[in-house]
Amino acid sequence: MTKLLGVLGDPVSHSLSPVIQNHWIREAGLDATYEALRVAPDEFNLALETLSKRDCVGFNVTLPHKTAAFEASALLSDAAQAIGAVNTLTLQNDGSWHGHNTDASGFLDSLHRQNIAAMPETKVIVIGAGGAARAVVYALSSIDVLPLILNRTEAKARQLSIDLTGSEAAYGSVDHLYGRAAEADLVINTISLGHEGKILNLPRVKKGIFADISYGHAAADQLAHASEQGWTTHDGLQMLVSQAAHSFETWFNIDPQTDEILSRCRTLLETVT
Question: Model pTM greater than 0.90?
Answer without folding.
Answer: yes
